[in-house]
Write a structure and sequence with these properties.
This protein is 30% helix and 29% strand. The protein is an alpha+beta fold. The structure holds 4'-deoxy-4'-aminopyridoxal-5'-phosphate (PMP).
């Protein structure tokens, strides 16, 4: 049985219910986070809670809990779940109210937290990399907010499912932005390149971890805009996210990336990440 938290109560997932008038349901009016947990220790919890705050600020919703209260709720979910490694999904919506685009004056936000099994990349995809396609980024101009209105991401992700690929890499105005559910890095002549954080991409927590590990590994690393042409001629392409960690793209739009196998920098980064995720809170 999976125990979840909903508005002050811990209860079985099957019994958790919200109003059909919830603005999360009617408008996708809410924000969320996914926090990876290794050996029942949340990884980068404070960074996830800081991004949650930024998303809440971005949609003008007061944070219903302070950091200590969030941590306590999350730790209770982590303890109750059956998995040592898990992902904690949390979401805050503006809550139930009359169906009107404008915010109601008085409203109680809906807070939901649930544990999920983590499914890190298979040994096969680490060894051989995954295939990805590209698509034009047609999302809005606040992709830095982690909002539950994910329909554009859902449709973009489905393009890669339809093409039997692991991710859709998004390009806007000739620049690499990110994946439909991941951050994207490239390696060019031994240098790790990362697109800069702007309003057009989610500030990935794993993106920051990878940049820290790259510095610790002494990898040359530059944060700057990356053109579509550079993406297509990259020696390596990496995808990163809290649930998928670091993955190599070995084929993009049907073409081999570099040698067509995960590259040497990826192998170093992947190995470092595997130890790091277990050693640090
Ligand atoms: N970009 C998008 C659009 C995402 O959905 C995700 C996954 N949450 C990421 C980037 C990676 O973010 P993180 O490393 O914090 O999981």
């Amino acid at each position: 049985m999976t125990t979840v938290y909903l508005n002050g109560t811990f209860l079985p997932l099957e019994e958790a219910q919200i109003s059909v008038m919830d603005r999360g349901f009617l408008f996708g009016d809410g924000v969320y986070e996914v926090i990876p947990v290794y050996d029942r220790q949340p990884f980068r919890l404070h960074e996830h809670l800081a991004r949650l705050q930024a998303s809440l600020d971005g949609i003008r919703l007061t944070n219903p809990h302070g950091a200590d209260a969030w941590e306590s709720l999350i730790m209770q979910i982590v303890a109750s779940a059956e998995w040592q490694d898990q992902g904690v999904y949390l979401q805050v919506t503006r809550g139930p109210g009359p169906r009107d685009h404008a915010f109601p004056k008085i409203i109680q936000p809906t807070v939901f937290i649930m544990p999920m099994p983590l499914s890190p990349p298979s040994a096969e995809s680490v060894e051989h990399g995954v295939s990805a396609i590209t698509a034009t980024d047609n999302r809005w101009l606040r992709c830095d907010l982690k909002v539950t209105s994910l329909l554009p991401n859902v449709l973009l992700r489905q393009l890669s499912v339809d093409a039997d690929c692991a991710e859709t890499v998004l390009i806007r105005d000739g620049q690499l932005i990110e994946g439909s559910a991941s951050s994207v890095f490239i390696v060019q002549r031994g240098v790790l390149l990362a697109p800069p954080k702007t309003n057009l991409m989610l500030p990935g927590i794993t993106y920051d971890v990878v940049l820290e590990l790259a510095a610790a590994e002494g990898m040359d690393c530059v944060i700057r805009p990356i053109s579509e042409a550079e993406l297509r001629s990259a020696d390596e392409i990496w995808l990163t996210s809290s649930t998928k960690e670091v993955m190599a793209v070995s084929r993009l739009d049907g073409q081999p990336v570099g040698s067509g196998q995960p590259g040497p920098l990826f192998r170093r980064m992947h190995a470092h990440y595997q130890t790091f995720k277990h050693t640090v809170m």
